Structure formats: structure tokens, C-alpha cells
Amino acid sequence: MIPEIGFAQPWWLLLLPLTALPFLRPAQKRLSYPALFLLPDASGARRWDRIRRLLLAACLGAVIVSLTGPFFKEQKIARVGTGAHITLTIDHSSSMNENFSGRYLGGGAKETKSAAARKLLLQFIQRRQQDLFSVVAFSTAPRLVLPLTEDDTAIQAAIGALGVRGRGITNIGPGLAMALATFRGRPQTGARVILLVSDGAARLDQDVQDRLRQDFQDLAVNLYWIYLRTPNSVSVLHPPERRLSETSTPEVFLHRYFQTLKVPYRVFEAENPASLAEAIAAIGRLENQPLHYFQTLPRRNLAPYTFGIALALGLPLLFWSALEVNRWLP
Known about the structure:
Elements: E1 5-7, H1 43-67, E2 70-72, E3 75-91, H2 113-127, E4 132-138, E5 142-149, H3 152-160, H4 172-181, E6 191-198, H5 206-219, E7 222-228, H6 250-258, E8 265-270, H7 273-286, E9 289-297, E10 300-301, H8 303-322
Parallel strand pairs: 3-4, 3-6, 6-7, 7-8
Antiparallel strand pairs: 1-2, 2-10, 3-9, 4-5
């Protein structure tokens, strides 16, 4: 497919008639010579003169086109690969500033749960070059950091932007609702995945539960939860046998709620950076289905190339001008 060409300043094209000037001016300077019959045959010179005129016209045209700022317009190219549409839904509450032992370190520390998750998610993204990613961060309220895209640079920048200190509480319901919204209105051409990275949970009222359950089923989204567990937190895979309450163990109740969504769901408990790495690696092996998507190619500036053409045409003309005879020697 040939890309469409555009011009940043198309009014310069009004100067294109100037390219006819080389064909209007006299071919050579008039020189006085007393015996014209002694001059050599000029048929070869006339042929070279026509070539020079064409080169000069082409050079003028290249300069004028360069001034217009030509560019290839943005393109969308259909691609077929193996992968998934993945929305990274990342807990950015204040508890993510703790390390895996439960000690608060602050957002800038390198040993926090947030820092470990960011580092491993970046490696996860680099290994899955054909996936489309979006990023949603949540604490008290959610925010869309990046919509679904295949741009690896933008994805890495979005993950890096979460390096500031987390604030607020863990409010998973609105975060999941925003993550589901990233798939709404898009054609389903591959597996859809929400990768939830969180160290806790909060109570979901019945209305929120019903709405999320319906959205998961309508949009056919798979859910993976990486539960960043500290030693003083309850295990969702092996909860204590004593009677549990929703207020004291919200993570267990959230896990049980996720099991009722009627979509593929799996939870991974990560108690340290090593187990977190194992969880992300396991997820990387799970979702590899045929994927159809459109890759967006950005606008491409053509002015350097047209200026280069003008230079390539102009240099021979300068050399040619230097060889021109200005007067006949007696």
C-alpha cells in the first residue's frame, strides 16, 4: 500500500510554474566571432543544453516541493500475530510503598512492592512484542494512564510514570471498571486479559459486583490477579479454617467473588520478588492466541529527501557552469 502524501505549507506549490524558466531563457551567451563557418558542429552542444535545462527545471521543482514540507500521512497497517490485548491494572495505593516484609519504605525506594512490580512488568512487556497493552492505575480512584496500544515506548513510559509514591486506599472496584472500559467498542480479535497487580482488596457492594460480573461476561475478558502478599496478610489460596469475615479478610472474599465471574480466572500469590517473577512468567505462557490488530505508523517527514534531491541535481549544474566558455580566444 502506497502511503498518502500531504503538505504542511501547500501554497508554495503556486511557484511550480517557475520550473518553466530554464526553457524560456536563451541557450547560451551571445559571443562575437568573425568567421562562423569555422565553428564546430553544435548538434552535440544543443543536446547537452537540453539536458542542462531539464536538470535545472527538476532542481527548481525539488526546492519548491521541499519548501511545502512534504510528508507521508499516518498509516494504519493490518497485522496478524500471536498474543493478547492486555490491560495492566496496577494498585497505586500507599500500601504499595511497603516492601514484601510489610515495612514502609516510601515511593522512591527500590525494594518496594511497587518498584518490584514495575521492573518485572517492563520485562514482561519486552518479551511480548506482539501484544497490545493499556495501563490503568488505581488507589482511592482510578485513572487511565494509557489506552490500548502496540507502541512499546509509550507502554514503558506509562509503567515508569507509576514510580512516584502511591497514595490513598486500595479501591479495586472502580479500577476494574475502568480496565474493562478499555475493551469496550473495540473488535475482539484475540484474547482479552486484565492483569490485576495488587497487595490487597476492599469491599465491593452488591451493585458493583453485579455490574462487574456482567461486563466481564459481555466483553469476554480473562482475569489474572497477582496478589502481592506480605507475611501478615492472609493467603487467598489457603485461608485459615476459622470463620472469616468480609471486613477482616477482604482478599479472600474478593478471590471467591472472582471465581463467580464465569470467565477464565487465576490468582497468583507473590510473597517476594522471586515469586512475583514466577507469577508473571506463568501468565506470559498462558495467553498466546491468534491476534489481529492495526499498527499505526506515524507521519514521516519527506523534506530532507527532497532537499537532498535538489542538492544532487544542483551540484552538476554548478560544475557545468564552471566549465562554460565566457569568451572565444583569438
